[in-house]
Amino acid sequence: MLHWLTLMADSLPSLLWAALVFTVPLTLASFALGLTVGLVAAVVRLFGPAPLAAIVRFYVWIIRGTPLLVQLFLIFYGLPSVGIVLDAFPAALIGFTLNVGAYTSEIIRAVIGSVPKGQWEAAYSIGMSWSQAMRRTILPQAARVAVPPLSNTFISLVKDTSLAAAITVPELFQAAQRIVATSYEPLILYVEVALIYLALSSILSALQVRLERRFGQYGGFLEAKS
What does the alpha-carbon distance between residue 58 and residue 48 come to, in Å, rounded to a whole number? Predict the structure, then answer.
């Protein structure tokens, strides 16, 4: 037991460093870019011309219908066969961004569609353009509904970044694998990694609850004014 505790204490700085330098930036960048892709894809599907909407539907179908690990392998190991060579981190960033974009597009499409048509009519009646109505009226209301599912997607992404180890990104999980290769103690190292992911997920879940309460109060304020 003392040996295991010593090993955990010795390995913790390396694991936390890998999480800080690779896991956290990869998560934040992938989610921010994926959310942007998802918003554009959702708007195109709802309001765009039929050919573009069909392309977006095909993209969402492909991404949602194939495993994330396979997508990462296609980008990192498959694209070099056609002359496109990417480093591990950019390949992981592209893979996670496309994956998050597909799933968030469905969330955003649903929440925009849930806003009553009367809100569009009210916005147009006071002289707003389509873009102004979307930015000032529709998206703020949709955001309140989208917080829980988008938060869940973000928390899942934190854990999914462990798959980047498969394409040699030196993030948290691969850092543990390297320590296991020299210490020959897979059980205790992988338990430690699991506890770190659990701590991160718990912190994010607590923040999600606070964010939902904040948006709930904002939504109640809007309803009271209306």
Answer: 14
For the chain, which domains are there? 2-225 (1.10.3720.10)
79's CB contacts (< 8 A; 6+ apart) are 85, 86, 91
What gap in Å lies between CA 190 and CA 180, rounded to an integer? 9
User: How many Å apart are CA 144 and CA 91, to the nearest integer?
Assistant: 32
Structure tokens at 222: 């809007």
Query: In this structure, is the dihedral angle defined by the CA atoms of residues 126, 128, 133 and 135, taken in order, positive or negative?
Result: negative
For 166, the token pair is 């498969």
Two tokens, residue 192: 């430690």
Q: List, for residues 40-63, the tens digit of each pLDDT value.
A: 999 999 999 999 999 999 999 999
- Within 8 A by CB and 6+ apart from 172, the residues are 15, 18, 19, 22, 23, 161, 162, 193, 196, 197
Longest dimension (CA), the chain: 72
Rounded to an integer, the average pLDDT of 31-36 is: 97
Give pLDDT tens digits for 132-170.
Answer: 999 888 988 898 899 999 999 999 999 999 999 999 999
Closest CA to 11 of 222, 122, 223, 172: 172
